[in-house]
Amino acid sequence: MTENASRLTTGARRPYLIVNPRSGGGKASRFRIAERARVIGAQVFLIDHSLPQDLATVARRAVDDGADLLGVAGGDGTQALVAEVAAESGLPFVVIPAGTRNHFAMDLGLDREDPSAALEALTDGVELRVDLGYAGERVFVNNVSFGAYAALVREPAYRDDKLGTAVRILPEFLARHEGPELVVRAGTLTVHGPDAVLVSNNPYPLDDPVVLGRRALLDSGLLGVLAARAETPAETVTRLRSGRPDGLTRLATSDDVVVYADVPALPAGLDGEAVSLPTPVRCRISPRALRVWVPRHRPGAGTSGRLPGRGA
Q1: How many Å from the N-terminal Cα to the C-terminal Cα in the chain?
Q2: Could you give the maximum distance between any two Cα atoms of the chain, in Å?
Q3: Contact 119/40 with Cβ under 8 angstroms?
């Protein structure tokens, strides 16, 4: 596959930024994202959590009103909702890492310590083309999870400390998981009865599937698949840490990944948000579907401005 070389952007005339003031413990407010965005000419929509709001509808209305760029200051779940609209509209998308973990921003090489730095994409940026994952009709920028992984997302502590919570309680979740019987199919591979399934937009590193690391690529055109079975917490830890193949299935595939269950709707974690998806859930990858504008200078990229892993 050829390198995903960046190209300089020409600037947006009518950028539109959706800001979640509560995300990341109020990170957008602390870094004055809305004020700074307005100074450089962006129209800003502040999410009001006291009102029911459909952010995809907000984004589509902005496109209809003439926006030529969409951006989000918030967590990965909010990023995915608006990224879907940007992709279907053919508009560039800007990620402002104002969430708690900001995995998508990390894999784009953005500065997660100073989310305001991402606003430079509007004035001094480059464009990258990255893949998008779909679970049924829903977009995910990072991953969608089922079984014990999805149950983990519903834990109250998970939102504030995703990695610590996963390391602390995921083995026990795997061992005692009770829920719908799952079957996963990808191409000629079928996995019966996994306790946990994670399908990712591009594969994660294989060394530690409990603590999901940084994806080397975001434009490989491949879904990553992790399906785990376990009998006891100790067995789970051993398998996950050692990478032993028994009870643990790993796959990188361009095929659709279909998750079947004996229920009409399956609890899932979509980019860290708890959702319910009609079964069977067909996951697919849409190669290079999203135009992402990022600052030309950012911590996780080389001088070329390319995606991490592609000459960066």
Answers
A1: 16
A2: 57
A3: yes
Q: Which helix (H) or strand (E) holds 301?
A: none
Residue 39 buriedness (CB in 10 A; 0-12 / 13-18 / 19+): exposed
231 and 175 in contact (C-beta within 8 Å)? yes
- Count each helix (H run) and each strand (E run) in the chain, helices first: 8, 17
Q: Write the CA distances from 210 to 34, 99, 173, 198, 270, integer angstroms.
A: 35, 21, 12, 11, 17
Backbone angles phi, psi at 106, to 5 degrees: -60, -45
3-state secondary structure of 36: helix
- For the stretch 94-141, pLDDT in tens is 999 998 878 899 999 999 899 999 999 998 899 999 999 999 999 999
- Classify strands 15-19 and 43-46 as parallel, antiparallel or unpaired: parallel
Single-letter amino acid, residue 38? R
Q: Tell me 116's DSSP state.
A: G
**Residue 192 Cα to chain centre, angstroms:** 26
Question: How many angstroms separate the CA atoms of 117 and 98, rounded?
Answer: 11
In degrees to the nearest 10, what's the CA dihedral of 236, 240, 243, 244?
A: 10
pLDDT in tens, 129-176: 999 999 999 999 999 999 876 666 666 555 555 555 555 555 665 655
Q: Coil, helix or strand for 34?
A: helix
What is the Cα–Cα distance from 197 to 33, expressed in whole angstroms? 36
Can you tell me the distance from the alpha carbon of 161 to that of 23, in angstroms, rounded to the nearest whole number?
A: 13
Predicted model pTM: 0.84
The first and second tokens of residue 245, run together, are 């193949």
Taking Cα atoms as reference points, which of 59, 61, 16 lies closest to residue 40?
A: 16
Instruction: Give the CA count within 13 Å in the CB-facing half-sphere of 301.
Output: 26
Long-range contacts of 242-248 (CB under 8 A, 24+ apart): 243/206, 243/207, 248/209
Q: Collapse the DSSP code of 172 into the 3-class scheme (helix H, G, I; strand E, B; otherwise coil) and give the result.
A: helix
What is the rounded CA–CA span in Å between residue 287 and residue 236? 33
Paired residues of 251 in beta bridges? 225
